[in-house]
Amino acid sequence: MSTKRLISIIVVLFIGVILLSAVFTSWYTVDESEQAIVITFGEASDPITESGLKFKIPWPIQKVEKLSKETFSLQFGYKQAPDGEITSFDKDTKMITGDDSIVLTDLVVQWKITNPRAYLFNSENPQEMLHDATSASIRSVIGNSKIDDALTSGKAQIETDTTELLASLIEKYNIGITVLTVKLQDVELPNDEVRSAFMAVTDAEETKNTKVNQAEKYENQKMSEAIGEKDAIISNAEGIKTSRIEHAKGDVALFDKLFAEYQYNKEITRERLIMETLDAVLPNAQIYIMNDEGGTMKYLPLQSLGSNKQTSPTATTNTEIKTEEGSGQ
């Protein structure tokens, strides 16, 4: 084979390789969970987020970098293997609280890539920067918190403060990452002796809170009973008040009627009132009306004539009512 023919074959093979390379590198696919960046001689284009088959200029003029749109988890202070085994890193998790106590704190940071161009070109290792920013944020928040808050009721506030501080740092770094949430996994004391002492204090606090709640419940119960008794007394008093007012109104109405009768016939009304008063004051007395004009009948018994009841003289009260004929009294 001549040299010229050999050169021709080599040229043809080279052109064929270039054509095959152009064919296989001129198209790419973007999945629904991916976003792509087309890089032309080192310059990145706008992110491509729509899924489907895409075309570009063959390599090496253009190349494509694909990044996931899913949410990632950064495990800070520990690492969980696929088989479930957990490895702790005490050097990362050991922190000092605001009241000079030591705690071990590990957490999980949920984040996602929101700016592929910044993620690819603004940092050599964005995930390492996220890890360092997480360490700085949680240490700052724990350093401003008390140990009681870090171990008990203050965890939610620590998570919120850490999320806000970490998000502000990542925004300043501009590495194309957005922090979604920060979740504390565990906050504990560094050794068993300190942990048991703190748990004893925590149990005492819980017992105190329980006793306080029981006392407040008892106080509320007694207050409710006292208020109910007070309302019952007031209601009863209102009823008595209304009854006495109505009774007084009845007495006034009766008096008005008696006064009207008295104005019509004063003498008869006066004698009737005297009789009724004597009957009310002396209910068991025998009353006689005496006549001193010398007539045959000296007295008039008011008791029923048909009564067979005998009353002893010692138990009889004689009341004399003198009347004057023609008197205006």
What percent of the residues sit in helical stretches (DSSP H or I)? 40-55%
State the oligomer.
single chain
Tell me the distance between the termini. Answer: 175 Å
Major β-sheet profile? 4 strands, antiparallel
What's the rounded overall pLDDT mean? 78
The number of helical elements comes to 8
Rg measurement, Å: 55 Å
Instruction: Work out the strand percent.
Output: 15-25%
Residue runs with pLDDT of under 50 for 5 or more positions = 305-329
- Secondary-structure class: alpha+beta
Overall shape: elongated
Order of helices and strands, N to C? Answer: HEEEEEEEEHEEHHHHEHHEE
DSSP strand count: 13
3D architecture notes:
This protein is α+β, with helices and mostly antiparallel strands and 329 residues long. It contains eight helices and 13 strands. The strands form five sheets. Strands 6, 9, 10 and 11 form a four-stranded antiparallel β-sheet that branches. The chain has a three-stranded antiparallel β-sheet with strand order 3-2-5, with no helix packed on it. The longest helix is centred in the C-terminal third of the chain and has 73 residues, at 192-264.
List keywords for this structure.
single chain; 329 residues; alpha+beta; 3-stranded antiparallel β-sheet; 13 strands
Helix and strand arrangement:
Blueprint: H1 3-24, E1 27-30, E2 34-40, E3 43-44, E4 52-55, E5 62-68, E6 72-76, E7 78-80, E8 86-88, H2 90-93, E9 94-96, E10 102-113, H3 116-121, H4 126-143, H5 147-151, H6 155-173, E11 177-188, H7 192-264, H8 266-281, E12 288-290, E13 299-301
Antiparallel strand pairs: 1-4, 2-3, 2-5, 6-10, 7-8, 9-10, 10-11, 12-13
